[in-house]
Amino acid sequence: MNKRDKLRELIVYVFYGVLTTAVNMIVLWGLEWLLKPRWGGHSYLFSNTAAFVVALVFAFVVNKLFVFKQKSWERRQLLHEAWTFTSARLLSFGLDTLFTVVFFDLLWPRCEAWFTPLWLRVPVAAEKIIAEDAFRFLSKLLLIQVMVVILNYFFSKHIVFKTKRGEDAQP
User: Is 40 left (phi over 0), alpha (psi -120 to 50) or beta?
Assistant: First the structure.
């Protein structure tokens, strides 16, 4: 694979990574909107899991077809790819969940006093809710998701969809 192909692959991976992240975040926020009023502050654990499953299916298809150009739907290869892809994503999901708990349960209560004054223009009743949601957004999207995308690229490139030396992906 020449430099141009590697660059194309990386750009396409980042593009679909952004779309996968968008799918993840839309499902996450949609479920939070529905569940948080009923379940309280810990609804994010279920929402995060459901968002992961939806994003996993989306990511597998786009990575297989468009990023790493693995066109074979032969049953044995498909099962192997699906198994290794899911296993790798479960590992990164475990890290995602760990960091989500760390940020939301451990760091947010300690950062609240610092972060909330950034939202002083917001009416007092909404101030805490908006600051907490902004913190969740920033930590989830900017910190945790970037780490997950990098880890997932490594797994997908070098484990799941790797091609043997001298063998190119099917066009």
Answer: left
CA distance 55 to 25: 9
Q: What is the pLDDT of residues 122-135, one digit of tens each?
A: 554 444 555 566 66
What value, to the nearest 5°, has the Cα angle with vertex 23 and ends 19 and 24? 115
By percentage, how much of the chain surpasses pLDDT 90? 34
Q: What is the pTM of this model?
A: 0.67
- Residue 19 tokens read as 């779309």
Q: Which residues of 134-165 are buried (b: 16+ CB within 10 A; e: fewer)?
A: ebbeebbeeebbeebbebbbebbbeebbeeee
Q: What is the DSSP code (8-state) at residue 170?
A: P
Q: What is the pLDDT of residues 80-112, one digit of tens each?
A: 999 999 999 999 878 888 887 777 777 766 666
Which one, of 2, 93, 7, lies nearest residue 45 by Cα?
93
Task: Tell me how many degrees the CA angle 156-144-37 measures, rounded to the nearest 5.
Answer: 120
Which residues, 6 or more positions from 158, have their beta carbon under 8 angstroms from its beta carbon?
A: none
Cα dihedral 19/24/27/29 (nearest 10)? -110
